[in-house]
Amino acid sequence: MSSSFQAPKGTYDILPADAPTVLAIREAFAAPLRRAGYGYIETPVFEDVKLFSRGVGESTDIVSKEMFTLTKRSDEDLAMRPEATASVLRAALQANLHRIGNLPVKLWYSGSQYRYEKPQKGRYRQFWQVGAEAIGAEDPALDAELIILADDAFRSLGLRNFRLLLNSLGDKQCRPVYRAALQDFLRGLDLDEDTVRRAEINPLRVLDDKRESVQAQLVGAPMLRDYLCEECKAYHEQVREILTAAQVPFEDDPKLVRGLDYYTRTTFEFVHDGLGSQSAVGGGGRYDGLSEMIGGPALPSVGWALGVDRTVLALEAEGIQLPTPGSSDVFAVPLGEQARTVLFGAVTELRRAGVRADFAYGGKGLKAAMKAADRSGARFALVAGERDLAEGVVQLKDLSTGDQTAVALDALVSTLKEKLK
Questions:
Q1: Would you say domain 19-174+228-317 falls under CATH 3.30.930.10?
Q2: Please, are residues 131 and 304 in contact by the beta-carbon 8 Å criterion?
Q3: pTM to 2 decimals?
Q4: In the CATH scheme, what is the code of domain 330-419?
Q5: Sign of torsion, CA 95 111 303 146?
């Protein structure tokens, strides 16, 4: 009989059968970051709600519609983190990392985020990301570095059917001019009340509206690229040149905005053509003003987040199965109580020597225990009865070939480590 409880709507369990793929994705995302000097950071899953309303933006759907707020047991207003950039920057500022180390401060994280939205394939209320932030430097090479690291991560998994979309959102000098021009254009459209309100607060967010009724009216809307100042144009061109030199293909997308208010200049998104409407597998950009928004000093920064859940779906869409090693290398099958005691000691010794080893628990007979050994994915079964122990040996059976050899108990660890190389 199963439990009467189920995972909450919009969430799911990562089970042992799925875990190797999930862990491999996380490692593929993390490995290039470690090689590039990014240090690991973890932040609380809940923060002061104002951290997100100021940083992410009051007008965003994330803050206005999707943020989980917590029932209060104190005077604090807390919210589950809907994204991690604001949290990571808050932690860096609180610990004065920008003062005690070289700039940029390079950080990476892995964890779950929370958004209250209508669940569908590729969109969950709890979802996992690996992300990276480079805090305290304004340099097109840094923007390009992060994009290249993400591209390398996806390719290391064998993915090929993804595209990199690239845009510039300008800065505090040129964006206000564009903002005013876009607002003038939007005021002439037939938009619903919520969209009109969004257009007055942050008109760029309207460009990100996925509804066809809105997109159809945006034909002929002014494009930000036509309003970029010379400095922003030059900066963006340097990013493009570095990516081209690194052989990272990209597509210029003048409508790319993304759903967060803090982005400036470089903005990018990785999309996969096999995922339908939820096509984004990762993205990010530069956020030069976020530190000041949350009460810190001026710290130009850039970062990204890559979706673990979406990447699982992308691998499925391309028919890619990552290598999934069995849960153990050796499975011990004792025949009798004396063998049970001796083989359990041998399993403990093997584990301490770095060998993955498991044991036939529950007093299984030989046939049932050997079936359990096969199901474990182990390469070898370790079988012993009273006669074997009297001779000081155990039987080592190769489960792929059926070959069986006697191995001295005192040489078991060295023999197995040699065979498992």
A1: yes
A2: yes
A3: 0.89
A4: 3.40.50.800
A5: positive
